[in-house]
Design a protein that fits this description.
The protein has about 725 residues and is of the alpha/beta class. Helices cover about 30% and strands about 20% of the residues.
Amino acid sequence: MPYTSPKPTTDRRLAIAVRGVVQGVGFRPFVYNAARTRGLAGWVRNEADTVRIEVQGDGGAIEGFLEALRDDAPPQAAVEAIEIQDVGCLDEEPGAFEIHASRGHAAPRPTIPADLATCAACLEEIHAPGMRRHEYPFTNCTNCGPRWSIIESLPYDRSRTSMAGFAMCPACAEEYGDTADRRFHAQPIACPRCCPELRLLDAAGGELARREEALAGSVKAVLDGRIVALKGLGGFQLIVDATNAEAVARLRRRKHRPDKPLAVMLPSLDAVRWCCEVSDAEAGALTSHQRPILLLRRIAGDKTVAEAVAPGNPYLGVMLPYTPLHHLLMDRVGRPVVCTSGNLSEEPMATTTAEAVERLGPIADVILTHNRPIVRPVDDSVAQVGPDGVQLLRRARGYAPRPIELGVDGPTVLAVGGHLKNAVALRLGSQVVLGAHVGDLDSLESVEVHRRAVRDLVAFFDVVPERVACDLHPDYASTRHAESLAAEWGVPLVRVQHHHAHVASAMAEHRLIGPVLGLAWDGTGYGTDGTVWGGEALCCRGAAFSRVAHLRTFALPGGDRAVREPRRSALGALWETMPEYAAGIVADWYTATELQFAADPNHGDAYSIPLAGDAPAVADWGPLVAEVIADVRAGVPVGWISARFHNALAALAVAIARHAGCSQVVLTGGCFQNALLTRRVRAALLASDFNVYTHREVPPGDGGIALGQALVAGIETRG
């Protein structure tokens, strides 16, 4: 971070500005105590874009104070810059250090952390009989609890959150004002006497119980095999006993989700280890303050979780409790539960009790709700541990809205993302705030959530974008909205090709300028020539790109539907090469399991994918298809077929990189959510002396393309 320490004197006063994620993490109390313990006078306050400090006293004490700012900030803070200026000492300065009222005159900047999982101290309090917050489901402190899901505007104060309607009782007010208490200036502070409370409703919205009885009723419902709609941190979730196959099947029928895996919540890390393989890195991710849903390999033969939760899938999406309410529920249920987004398939998550009654009433048997409003929907994040560490597959709770630092200043750019796995982004100077996961824009309700997310981001940071970025596809709902916004604001509209946006998102995450070879192995994307692109290799530098190589084209049965149903792409490729064979095999191919799960890790052979031509080169998958069919006819084990397929793609990646002659290679696009493919391609490229970059903080799939759009449009604006 930029930091220059002035030389100490015996009597000094400094004006200090601290920027980064420094609001909502206990930073002002930390500053207060750091100054008071060193006998320094002055003040600290939040402003819309910073924490501002003035401090006066002995030069040596001030040096120690500056070291504390730099090295000892609260664990959830992210200090990015400390600006220091010597100012004249004030003779009338009192001997005390104070916290001043916040000011909001500056334009807000990314200073707020994501929602934080319950800390150990609060968890201990919840479980300790006789404590004031014993079994209270909304316990929090400066180190944990809701942030992004409840804040309405900056600076971060209780009056600007959805807690504003709850007046603190005397005991909470005393904690809030006690410098020695961990709830000193904890804005969401709550207790049973003065703050949110639970209610249990029937599916039609009629009240069944309140407070402890509401929790007890929901626990009984789960144990009885019924479905509970629970108001979580950033939206409603659907809960059902994960050991009860019939209950899981009923949830699938009502939710209209016939076969996609469902996430599971388990009460503890030890419980996870009973049913899944857990590495040290995976254990760290599961117990982190982000608490994502983590993809873990199931222990072979384990029957703890019903097969219906993830049919035919050797992986489970697992998470641990991350709010006091989840902890209390899991303590009482004592077994794994399905914990999935509170929506009908293809619809947005419900966030209000009225929405839950209307939209989840037909799904849930009972509704466990509360009266703390959710300001914005925040779904659960999804991640996996790859060769470079934790890789996000869905960026939401625990991560949004923490900014991505680009390392170079630029204009204000709104990027509206794509059509699937939508997320929107806002570039503010050298940082990009990537909003929480919105989802697929296939329904009017989802489109409205997308538009609200755009309005919310722009209003929250109080800006009028200088440029709007969107996908090149003319028929995306996000593109049409971007067109109307650009016209409304009178600013340029930058249309960014889909695969280029994928590569640019990886470049932004790793602060790469180029030239970079991007292997954007994704579904379909509207090309600059008006055709459908897919499986692209692009050479990118700045905002420009050239098409280095791509897969041989073929017809896509169902058009854009092939993006969601890979079997259609497989059928199209088969029809292209062997139409007489396609009709006979199609029925079998429509129920094949994922190749990734079947691959033999010890098999080293590869199919052929010749690369020919120059501008651009074409990767011919025809020989691969023929070889796969020959192996199927010969009865070759599916594990070998899968391994040969993945090995062929790894060899193709090396061939393309050599053809491009570029030392920096990024792996991006939805195909690189396949952990096996990522590992094999990465290993092959590294063995051939290429520098390889994979996504970590931003999804490789379409959830990350808004970041790439923002980068490209920002470079375009800068010229």
